[in-house]
């Protein structure tokens, strides 16, 4: 069953895809330039597998970039298809009322059936994404949040290096890894959330069109087709929905986590964990200083 040619208009989504591709290209260029700059000013002593792995999987993390760009590209492509679906709905007669010589009741019902099937297929794609790639997104959100929480706690609540010189030139290099991590986390996190929210908005748009119609004046077959529309949101393996509400929840959890860690700083578990993490970062920091000074 095919849509009428009048519904199959070219949707202006090409420019959005071009903008997304340019953003991804700029992101990878930033990753390459950042690593070239860091390798030039802080070259490792030996170019072996561990040192090369550290370059590619430290901040900015290559694995995070692959996860985020792949997820954003997939989510945005689904949003573009929902946009085209909503554009086709806008070309239906106003109120889904029969127009003599242009639209008959059977044509309206058949068009609704096509749109419903397309909408159901896209919702099924979202469900598959949430169950498949959503597990990866859940791991990314969890581990990146825990890493950001530990970084912030070690920098501002404990501090793994005593700074004798408190000038601006000495503070900035010390805080640079935390600044880079916060910038990367905000950009990647908001890229996923904004694209997912845009997709959910376009998915619910056709539902709002249905609610705006006067159902009592429609044919019985049209009413049956309208009752078959379903909706579900993008989620991280069904644990939580990925939308703008997640930003507020993340900020609240970050503040609560920092306050809890500071209050339990002298506890045996937090104290031993902090010492182990500080030992690792101190050794890593000293290796970077030795490589820079040599």
Give a quick rundown of the structure:
The chain is mainly alpha-helical and 294 residues long.
Features:
0% strand, 294 residues, mainly alpha, 73% helix
3D structure, described in words:
The protein is mostly helical and 294 residues long. Helices cover 73% and strands 0% of the residues. The chain has 9 helices and no strands. It has helices spanning 14-41, 49-57, 62-90, 105-131, 133-158, 168-211, 220-226, 245-263, 268-293. Helix 5 (133-158) crosses helix 8 (245-263). The chain starts with 13 loop residues before the first helix and ends with a helix. The model has no long low-confidence stretch (mean pLDDT 77).
What's the number of helices? Answer: 9
On the 0 to 100 scale, the average pLDDT is 77
Helix content: over 70%
Q: Tell me the strand percentage band.
A: under 5%
State the total count of DSSP E strands.
0
Biggest sheet, in brief? none
Overall SS class = mainly alpha
Question: From the alpha-carbon coordinates, what is the Rg to the nearest angstrom?
Answer: 26 Å
Stretches with pLDDT under 50, minimum 5 residues: none
Name the shape in a single word.
Answer: elongated
CA distance, first residue to last residue: 71 Å
What order do the helices and strands follow?
Answer: HHHHHHHHH
GO biological process, one term: signal transduction
Organism: Aphis gossypii (Cotton aphid)
Membrane topology: Multi-pass membrane protein
Family: Belongs to the insect chemoreceptor superfamily. Gustatory receptor (GR) family.
